[in-house]
Amino acid sequence: MSDENKPVVPQSSQPELQKPAPVSAPPASAPAAPAAPATITAGKPASPERRQFIITWLGFAWMVFAAATVSALSTCLRFLFPNVLFEPKTAFKIGRPDTYELDKVDTRWEDKFGVWIIRSPEGLYALSTVCTHLGCKPSWLDAEQKFKCPCHGSGFYKSGINFEGPAPRPLERFSISLAEDGQILVDKSKKFQYEKGEWTNPLSLLAV
Fold first, then answer.
1. SS3 category, 75
2. How confident is the model at residue 15 (pLDDT cuts 50, 70, 90)?
């Protein structure tokens, strides 16, 4: 069919409505880049001085702990074993009578046993080295022939009788006898006081 024979399509008098342009979606935001991993910084090795300081304090702490442990253990052991007090002997031998000079004060036993041995014409006797005032120790003054207390000035004759100073009574005597082996035996557990009339007791004087 030729163009002339084609039917003419009448055009609408109204303008053709325009189709709205498609609304484009807002561009999607780009995904956030993953955070960079935190950089882990390795700790610096301790200096030799710091290591030595730590070792020293650790050693000190162990020493304190060990000392506390030993102390606690010793305290526990004290309850397992009874306390025993060792006291010096009250009876002792001091040699034969012929080793002591007449009218002499023998001081060889004053430090070890706390006695003076005197040999008089009547016999041997043992005097206590304790002053009867306040318990000080007198000294024998050979030039003055007396016992003199350095604390308060008390004086005693060779026999033990007090004659000066504040001492209220004579020195005490201890038991003295002859043992089976011929030696002098002194027993400090038995004492005799002059003011009580006890110097007449045979054990207060060893006749030789």
1. helix
2. very low
